Amino acid sequence: MKKRLFVFLAVSGVCFYAQGADVKTAPVEGLTAETPSAETGIIPSGRRSGPAKKIQVLTDSGNNFRYAPLRVIDPRPVPQQFRDVCRGAKTLEKAADQLFSGEGNFTIWSHFREWGILYANLPRLTGRPDVVPTETAKYALALLCDERYNEAEQILRKLAEKNPDDYGTMILLGAFSVRNREYFPYLEKAFAADPTRSVNFIVWQCQNLDLLQKLPEEWDFIGSFLPLLLQYREQIDFDAIPSPSLLRLNKAIWEKYFGEDRRIRPEYRDQKEKWSSLCTILVKHMD
Questions:
Q1: Residue 201 and residue 106 in contact, taking contact as beta carbons nearer than 8 Å
Q2: What pTM was computed for the model?
Q3: How many CA atoms lie within 13 A of 27 on its CB side?
């Protein structure tokens, strides 16, 4: 009976919240896992019918990843799309549990944001505040998917007071540092605990969850995040990071530290060798 109720409510929830949502999570618009230029990270344009479109993965300020989820037109009937999201709900919830428990690498991202919206709204849909535990990192992540930032922040702050070393709390507050730089130390702690999972999550989050929404200003998150890749490059399992994410990171380095003439920016001249070597590592693992 509970399973039938969940499916019914889940379908109803998708109807309310999946309008305009991505049919599936995908790399940045225009980015694929094809072999990039080792120097710039730009996809060769040999297969294009027209001029190559300049790809920009950072915001105009260069301080953050650009929010650019790929919009996919799905030819399947809408009810079928709803059913697929509901059928995958248990798998996606398990993936969320794995993110916080340390099991696996949490690379199952398709429909994850849609699952998060459903999970966040189950108390409203059922009329039962206790239908899911709401004082958890998993529920806070679901709230982020639903753009309920204030609620997510309040939960995460409470969790941090109880257990500041919990990985789920650390990575989510670390992700929240995009909005508030005071939380960046949590991202540093998350990297120290598991740099590979942390890279995977932050790159996905920055592309698929618009945490910068309605913020008047950006602090230089990228200028603090990318150095973590350098700091933990010996511990990061780059083979466990999807090629589109590696490509996105590579392109971010070039946009941040190098000019359009492909020369290191004057203010970063003393860092040229380490950024160039990191780009080489990223490109090497894209195969």
A1: yes
A2: 0.78
A3: 18
